[in-house]
Amino acid sequence: MYEIFEKLLNEKGLTAYKVSKDTGVSTATLTSWKQGIYTPKNEKLQKIADYFDVDLDYLLGTTTTRKAAKAAVLDVIRKKATKVPVLGSVPAGIPLEAIEDVIDYEEIDEDTAKKGEYFGLKIKGSSMYPMIMEDDVVIVRKQDTIESGQIGIVMVNGDEATCKKVVIRDGGIMLVGQNPEFIPLYYSAEEIETKPVRIIGRVVEIRRSLF
User: Three-class SS of residue 206?
Assistant: First the structure.
C-alpha cells in the first residue's frame, strides 16, 4: 500500500510532510506505515485517499481502477482543520499566547480542537530519543495538571520548558527522559512550589518530517 502512496506523491510532486499537514494524519503514522510497523486505520487512509481524489480500494491495492472521491469531501476536511502555532521555545514568564517565537503552523482535526487549546513545540535535544527526536514537532494540549506516565511540557526553575515523561511519586514528580543517558530528575512537593516546577501541557501527538 505504501508503494501506491509514494506513487501518488510522485505524480503530484508532493512530500509526505505536506500530505500530513493538509490531512492531519501525523508524520509519525506515515513513518510507521512506511516501515511496515502497522497500517493506519481506515479513517486515516480515507483522508489520504480523498486528498488524492482516489477511491480507498485503490489506495489499499485491492483495485487498479481509480475512482475519484467527491471534491466536497476534501473541502470539508480542509475547512474543519484548525491551525495551531508551532513554537521554537517556551521561555519562562511569558504567557503562551504572547510568545512571538512562532516558526510554523500545524493543523489538527475538528474533534481534537474541541477538546481544548493547543500549540506545537519543536523539540530540541535528544533526552526523549527514540520516541521523540530532535526537530520533531509535538502537539500539546494546554493544561496545568497531568496523569502519571504521560508526556508533558514542564517548566523548571524559570528555565525554558522541557519535554519529559512525568511520573508522580511520593507527593512529588519525576521527570524522565526516554534516552537512558539522561538521569531522571525528582522534585519534592516543596520543590514544586519553591523552584517552581510547572506543568504547561500534555503531548498528544508527535509529528516527524520524513524528508
Answer: strand
Query: Could you check whether 2-79 and 82-207 share the same CATH topology?
Result: no
Q: Which of 122, 164, 165, 188 is catalytic?
A: 164
- Would you kindly state where each structural domain of the chain is located, as residue ranges? 2-79, 82-207
The domain 2-79 having CATH identifier 1.10.486.10: the answer here is no
| SS percent in the chain: helix, strand, coil, step 5 | 30, 25, 40
The highest-level CATH class for domain 82-207 is mainly beta
Residue 48's φ and ψ, nearest 5 degrees, are -70, -45
Q: Return per-residue pLDDT of the chain as tens, 211 residues.
A: 678 888 888 887 888 888 888 888 888 887 777 776 777 777 888 888 888 888 878 877 777 777 654 444 455 545 467 899 999 887 666 667 667 778 999 988 888 888 999 999 999 889 998 888 888 999 999 999 999 999 999 998 877 789 999 999 988 999 999 999 999 999 999 999 999 999 999 999 988 875 5
Residues contacting residue 151 through CB under 8 Å, at least 6 positions apart? 128, 132, 138, 163, 164, 165, 166, 202, 203
Predicted TM-score of the model (pTM): 0.62
- How many other C-beta atoms are found inside a 10 Å radius of the C-beta of residue 30? 24
Which residues face 121 on adjacent strands? 87, 138
- 164 classed as catalytic: yes
Q: Of 127, 142, 148, 195, which residue is the catalytic one?
A: 127
